[in-house]
Amino acid sequence: MAEQVRGAASPARYGLTDDRAEAQLRSLGWWGDGGPEPACIEVLTTLSRSADPDLALRGLDRLREADETGWRKLAEGLREDPSLRGRLIGVFGTSSALADFLVGCPHEWRRLARDKGTKKERYVDILLRSVQDAGTTLTHGAAEQALRMAYRGVLLEIAAADLGHLVESGLERPSYTEITDKLTALAEAALTTGLAVAHAELKVTDPDTARLAVIAMGKCGGHELNYVSDVDVVFVGEGDLPLATRLASTVMRVVGKACFEVDAALRPEGKAGALVRTLEGHTAYYRKWARTWEFQALLKARPVAGDPELGRQYAEMVDSLVWTAAERENFVADVQQMRRRVEKHVPSELADRELKLGRGGLRDVEFAVQLLQLVHGRADPELRSPSTMEALNALGARGYVGRADAAELEISYEFLRTVEHRLQLRRLRRTHLFPDHHETAELRVLARAIGIKAERGRSEGEVLVADFRRHAQRIRRLHEKLFYRPLLQSVASVPSEALRLTTKQAATRLAALGYAAPDGALQHIKALTAGVSRRASIQHTLLPVLLDLLADTPDPDGGLLAYRKVSEALEDTPWYLRVLRDEGAVVERLACLLGTARLVPDLLVRAPEVLQLLGDPAALAGREPEEVAKSLRAAVRRQPGLKAAVAAARSLRRHEMLRVAAADLLGLLDVRAVCEALSTVWVAVLQGALAAALRKRTAETGTAPAKIAVIGMGRLGGAELGYGSDADVLFVCEANDGAGDEEAVRFALIVAKTVQEMLGAPSADPPLHVDADLRPEGRGGPLVRTLDSYRAYYARWSQVWEAQALLRARFVAGDEELGTRFLAMVDPIRYPDQGLDPARVREVRRMKARVQDERMPKGADPTLHTKLGRGGLADVEWTVQLLQLRHAHAVPELRTTSTPAALAVLAESGYVDAEDAASLTEAWLLATHVRNASMLVRGKAVDQVPSSGRPLAAVARIMGYGEETDPGEFLDFYRRTTRRAHAIVERVFYED
């Protein structure tokens, strides 16, 4: 059996490609004439799993040569102890620098027999003992050399614990944070030891003579050091400052030569400033002179060595300053600008490979996390951790960052830090540069050192490159999402006291902001932030900003109440608060809508998906009406029955009405576009409901004896509907082959009533009233007539008001061919060949006067009534329609159902002066806009312009009058515009 094993293997089988491999294996006693020694196969298997088997084997052979005696014991340990085998081979296969250290100090391999854990006290004891053993005089040369060897020995332990599991499956895999904790603890121990050496070298026997505290900054302060890092520090001294400065300089020199560079450039005034300052000196500088980036750096400040009381006092001072830094002017913009400056310093040819500073690099994560901490940590102590990973977890747990975003950032950050660690371990050099994609051998070794395996025809290196790019892209995407989040600037501008929302402070601030009922507002705030849930935490973040935004609206109290209603209604909608938190524009626009229009919250709780469109103005306002209608008809057509079809039509109309209303309130749609959109969706609802009713009735009777057409009248026919408009219609039918008129009418009547009843059923939405009162004989006449019946009626009984009403008639639903024939049939009636004779003109004028007198509400201000008031909708429309009746026979272009379009033709054809037509159009559009605005503000259809109070302020704001403008200016403008239009109507409507 042993012979078969030997014959079946060669060094290449174990990943060894060096020509010297077999000779080295023989010298180690692991290879015989026939192949591997059976007792050593497990060792060779572990060797094959190492990042670079050739490097590992070469290091082991050098270690044997350095200590032949000790090798025999080590060789036995490698065969029998998987823990030792995994740790030692893991190190030798990854780090040539640590292999050199072991060859120079062969006995140090005994450190790897077991994992000794992370204890700063143990590390301090090891390092201090090493320098004390170097000699009683502690001359700096001997001390530095001793410290260097002890430091490398502990670093070897940490690396072995980090790498062993990759080559020996039975070993526990340490987490990323466990390794960084160990590296940080080792650095702290080195600083403590360096300070002890400095005291001995300068013969300082009484530490109180020159008290010195070493404050860790950067990665050391955050417990997240690399294998090779500069350690950023700040020195605080008391007492003999010159002596304290010499102590600090000695610490920097000793530790710098033995372990790592100690960088004090983050101190006040940088390298130009004093190396050591008193606590008072630090405090005075930070309060008066510090720049934004310095507070960002202080986020990680932590005492790690020296005088503990002085360190504690410094930490308390820093804490009081750091967590108010976000209130500084332009704080968020300064941090963002700093990140852009750092990024620009990366050479363009290296930007895609720079792990630390490049796009999608470690700094992207760190800057985003620190900015979020500094802004939100003012009111939430849970975020006040110097560790990037801990802070990221807290941001996710507390709701400031989405759980998925936090988890993805954590995974990608850990991946890049692991890559950085492995790159640095190779030669123990400070590097953050990912290998070029052409360096296949180096990529392969790096991938194996991370634990990446080949997959699906891709080598380890190719998988590593793909993973690196994927993580970098993810980090950049999330960095831009979080770091440039508009909400950050809004939160930062809120004073810290206001963020805490305590009863006394909040009530005073709410009153100052303009809330009429601060106590009621406080009840809403308490209800929204009650408890310790993630939802409450997010609301706690949003509300200070939202309160400010609502204060700028016409009705802050109503807006806050509406926000509470919406939030409670959507509390189980998983994305609701996430959208508000992540999309600053959504919060701003939602506040504008809720504090202005009562109709919006009622619609929003039943069409919450529109909220997501608020962040994208193009999506909110950019849908073509015909595209909307097409999708609505398709959705209704897919429903299995009439009730489902009508429910779907209602739902889609609600969605579209809210979308249009939001775009209207935000100034993204003009009044013509609003009317067109609302009219188109109403038509689509009618089409869908009619088709569903026809299917249902046909299924019940087994036949369809009639075809039906719906003719739009009034504002529906003119495509000029508002938010509260009814749908004025006529129902026309015609018998299909084999059916009589009586049967056709019966069938069509049931269908028409079904449409009216189903659409007009009570609902929380604005009503869907299908009004057929403009039919022949009005309410007393039949709801449905055949085409021939309409023809007979209009030929014999038609009155001038019916001809006027038919000017707006257009086909909207049902059988298009029948609708087209109906319109052709009524054309001679609405466009009489010789126009109107004088008697009928007088009749129209008398009718207008009678309507004006009878329908104007009692007590209404005729200068502010949008429909029947002077220069209002009726004034302009009656004038246009009279001119159409008189002249459309001669001017085919006047045969339009649109009021503004007809005015344009009247001006072109000379029937109305161009300036008069422009004034009438302006008045009509203004009245339409104000009518729509009043509906949005009050939540119900109204024709009277508000004359005072918050409704007036809200309508004025919608009409473009800013917060600083007196709403009375809007009233003056409305009256002035309609007064001018009324004068024109008086002249044009009544001229001979």
TrEMBL record:
Organism: Amycolatopsis rhizosphaerae
Domain Glutamate-ammonia ligase adenylyltransferase repeated: residue ranges: 87-315, 588-824
UniProt protein name: Bifunctional glutamine synthetase adenylyltransferase/adenylyl-removing enzyme
Gene assigned in the entry: glnE
Swiss-Prot/TrEMBL keywords: ATP-binding, Magnesium, Multifunctional enzyme, Nucleotide-binding, Nucleotidyltransferase, Transferase
PII-uridylyltransferase/Glutamine-synthetase adenylyltransferase domain boundaries: 336-483, 846-988
TM regions (residue ranges): none
BP GO terms, sorted: regulation of glutamine family amino acid metabolic process
Function of the protein: Involved in the regulation of glutamine synthetase GlnA, a key enzyme in the process to assimilate ammonia. When cellular nitrogen levels are high, the C-terminal adenylyl transferase (AT) inactivates GlnA by covalent transfer of an adenylyl group from ATP to specific tyrosine residue of GlnA, thus reducing its activity. Conversely, when nitrogen levels are low, the N-terminal adenylyl removase (AR) activates GlnA by removing the adenylyl group by phosphorolysis, increasing its activity.
EC annotation from Swiss-Prot or TrEMBL: 2.7.7.89, 2.7.7.42
Region annotated Adenylyl transferase, chain positions: 495-992
EC primary class: transferase
MF (Gene Ontology): [glutamate-ammonia-ligase] adenylyltransferase activity; [glutamine synthetase]-adenylyl-L-tyrosine phosphorylase activity; ATP binding; magnesium ion binding
